[in-house]
Design brief:
Length: about 450
C-alpha cells in the first residue's frame, strides 16, 4: 500500500493502563507521521466488552496527551464497527475464501509461501499450510482480532503498521486476509520488545510500567519522550542523547529502529529527566510544580516571580519535579530544618567549629543592609570572613548550607542565602548555632 502522505495508527486495547511499551509504539508512529507530513490516527480496540472500560480509555487518552502525542482525526472505536466486520466476513464466505463451521466463519488459509518485507527485520516468510484455518467471526457474530484489525486498517487507509514484534506471528494471517480482500499490503515495521535489566520482558516486577506512574513520580513529558525514543531506536553517529521535540522529529527514521530488545533503565530515565529539568526555564516548570507545592501548604499565588527564581536555582540539582518541589519547600517554608544523615555526621564531627563558623557568619551577615543581600555581595562577605578566620572558604560555606537546608549539597551558598531571604536565613543560622551541639 503506498501513498504520498503516510497514514499511521496506534491501536491500544482499553483493558488496562497505558504501558510504556505501548507508549513507545505510539511515539514511533507519531514521530514518523510528523517527520513525513503524514497522518497519525488513534483507534481504540474495545471489542473485548468484558475487560474494556471507559476508565481505561480515558487513562490511555490522558497518557498520550501528557506525552504530547496528538492525533489528527476523530478517535475510531473498533466496537462501533462490528457490522462492518460482519459484512466483510460474509463477503469472504461468499467468495469462498472462508467457510462456515458450527455457526462460526473460518478463514481458509492458502497453501504456499506467505511472505512480507518487514522494515525492521527484512524479508519474513511463512508456509500457509503450517497455519490452520482460523475463525474470523465467532458463532455469536463477533469478529476476532486478526480479522477486524485488517478490515479497520484497510478502511482507515493505513499505509504503515508499526507495532511490537510479538505481532510477527499474527502477520501471515493478516497478509492472507489483505490478499483475499484484494487490498494492498501496508509497510510492516515490527519493533523489538522492551526488557528489564534482567533481560526479561518488562513487567510490574521491574517497577512502574504505566506511563501515568512516571508522571506521578515527577518525570517530565519531554524527558519521557526522549527516553522512550531511544529504547530500540538510534539516531546514528555520535550525537548526544538529549533531544528536544523538534530534534526528535527531524532525526527519526524507521531505518534507525534496532532489532535487539531495548533495556528499560530507570536510573537513565531519571538522569535524562534531570537534563530536561536543567534546560527548562523555571517559569515553564511552574505549572507542573505549583500543584505539588500547594498540596504541601505553600501559598503559590503570593509571589510567582520569586517562585520562578527559586525553581531556576534548585532545578540544577534535581532529578524529578518531586525533587524540585521538595527543595523549594525547604527554602521557602519556615518549618524547623531537619538534618539528613551526612549533615548530622558533619555537625557531630565539627561541633565547636560548626558553631563558631555560624556565630561569625551571623555577626557578619546580620550587619549587612537589606539592599546588600545580593549574591555577589554575600559571596564577597563570606570569603572575606573565612580569610579573616584563617579558614578555607568551605569551612564557612558548609555550616551555612547545612543550617539552611539540612543537607550537605545545595546550590552555591550565596544563591541559597538570596533564595531563603535575609530574615529567614538569619533565623535558621541562629537556630542551628544554638542546637548544633545537641544534634544526634
Amino acid at each position: 500500500m503506498t501513498s504520498t502522505a503516510p497514514r499511521l495508527r496506534f491501536a491500544p486495547s482499553p483493558t488496562g493502563y497505558l504501558h510504556v511499551g505501548g507508549a513507545r509504539t505510539a511515539l514511533f508512529n507519531w514521530l514518523y507521521a510528523r517527520k513525513t507530513g503524514g497522518t497519525f490516527l488513534l483507534r481504540i480496540e474495545d471489542t473485548d466488552k468484558q475487560r474494556s472500560t471507559e476508565e481505561h480509555t480515558r487513562v490511555i487518552l490522558d497518557g498520550l496527551t501528557w506525552l504530547g502525542l496528538d492525533w489528527d482525526e476523530d478517535v475510531v472505536f473498533q466496537g462501533a464497527r462490528v457490522e462492518r466486520h460482519r459484512a466483510m466476513a460474509d463477503r469472504l464466505l461468499k467468495d469462498g475464501a472462508a467457510y462456515e463451521e458450527e455457526g462460526a466463519i473460518r478463514f481458509r488459509m492458502p497453501s504456499g509461501e506467505i511472505a512480507f518485507d518487514d522494515a525492521v527485520y527484512g524479508h519474513i516468510a511463512f508456509k500457509g499450510e503450517d497455519i490452520r484455518d482460523w475463525i474470523i467471526l465467532r458463532s455469536d457474530r463477533t469478529p476476532t482480532y486478526n480479522f477486524s484489525v485488517v478490515v479497520d486498517d484497510i478502511d482507515m487507509r493505513i499505509t504503515h503498521v508499526m507495532r511490537g514484534d510479538d505481532h510477527i506471528s499474527n502477520t501471515p494471517k493478516q497478509v492472507a486476509v489483505y490478499r483475499a480482500l484484494g487490498a494492498s499490503l501496508p509497510v510492516f515495521a515490527h519493533v523489538p520488545m522492551i526488557h528489564g535489566k534482567d533481560g526479561k520482558k518488562l513487567s510490574k516486577r521491574h517497577g512502574a510500567t504505566a506511563v501515568g506512574d512516571y508522571q506521578q513520580l515527577g518525570i517530565l513529558p519531554a524527558a519521557m519522550r526522549n527516553f522512550l525514543a531511544l529504547l530500540g531506536w538510534s539516531p546514528g553517529g555520535d550525537r548526544e542523547l538529549f533531544f528536544d521535540l523538534r530534534e526528535l522529529i527531524d532525526a527519526f527514521s524507521i531505518e534507525g529502529i534496532q532489532k535487539k530488545s531495548a533495556i528499560f533503565d530507570t536510573t537513565k530515565l531519571e538522569w535524562m529527566n534531570g537534563q530536561h529539568l536543567t534546560r527548562t526555564p523555571g517559569a515553564e516548570l511552574l505549572p507542573i510544580i505549583e500543584p505539588l507545592l500547594a498540596a504541601q501548604g505553600l501559598n503559590v499565588a503570593e509571589d510567582r516571580e520569586r517562585l520562578a527564581r527559586v525553581t531556576d536555582v534548585v532545578k540544577e540539582r534535581s532529578r524529578t519535579t518531586l525533587d524540585v518541589a521538595r527543595q523549594i519547600m525547604v527554602r521557602l517554608r519556615g518549618d524547623p530544618v531537619s538534618f539528613d544523615d551526612k549533615a548530622r555526621q558533619m555537625v557531630q564531627k565539627h561541633g565547636d567549629g560548626f558553631k563558631h563558623a555560624l556565630r561569625s557568619a551571623i555577626e557578619r551577615l546580620g550587619a549587612l543592609p537589606d539592599e546588600a543581600w545580593q549574591p555577589e555581595r554575600l559571596e564577597s562577605e563570606l570569603r572575606s570572613l573565612a580569610e579573616t578566620m584563617g579558614f578555607a572558604a568551605g569551612r564557612v560555606f558548609q555550616p551555612i548550607r547545612i543550617a539552611l537546608t539540612g543537607s550537605t549539597v545545595s546550590e552555591p551558598v550565596n544563591l541559597l542565602l538570596t533564595v531563603v531571604g535575609k530574615a529567614e536565613s538569619l533565623r535558621r543560622l541562629r537556630a542551628a548555632e544554638q542546637s548544633g551541639s545537641s544534634v544526634r
